[in-house]
Amino acid sequence: EVQLVESGGGSVQAGGSLRLSCTASGDTASNYYMGWFRQAPGKEREGVAVFNDPGSAGGVSYADSVKGRFTISRDNAVNTMYLQMNSLKPEDTAMYYCAADRVDWWLMPRYRYWGQGTQVTVSS
Prior knowledge:
The protein has 124 residues and is mostly beta strands. The chain has no helices and 11 strands. Strands 2, 4, 5, 6, 9, 10 and 11 form a 7-stranded mixed beta sheet that branches. 32% of the residues are buried.
C-alpha cells in the first residue's frame, strides 16, 4: 500500500509561482495512476492534473481552469510527483492533495490513496 506526503504549499501574491511535491513510500509510484486535486472551502474536491497512465508515457490531462499555467511531472527514480503552478490566481486558493490508485479515475476524485494535503493561498 502506498503512502503519500505533499509539501511545498504556501502563501503567494497573484501572478506568483509555487511548486508542490508529493513523495510516495511503501510502494513504487510508477505502479499507480497519480494526480493532483484541490478543494476550496465550501466546494467539492476537483481534479487539477493527472497522468494518463502509471508510467506517464501516455501523457497528462489538466482541468481547463489550469491549462497553460500548471505543469504536472514526476521523477520515478525518487518516487516523487510535482505540480509547478505559475501565474497563480486568487481562485487557485485551496488545499491541494495528491492521489494514487491502480485504477484510472482520470480527473475524478475517486482515487483510493490520498495525502494529507498542503495549503495554497493566493492573495490579490
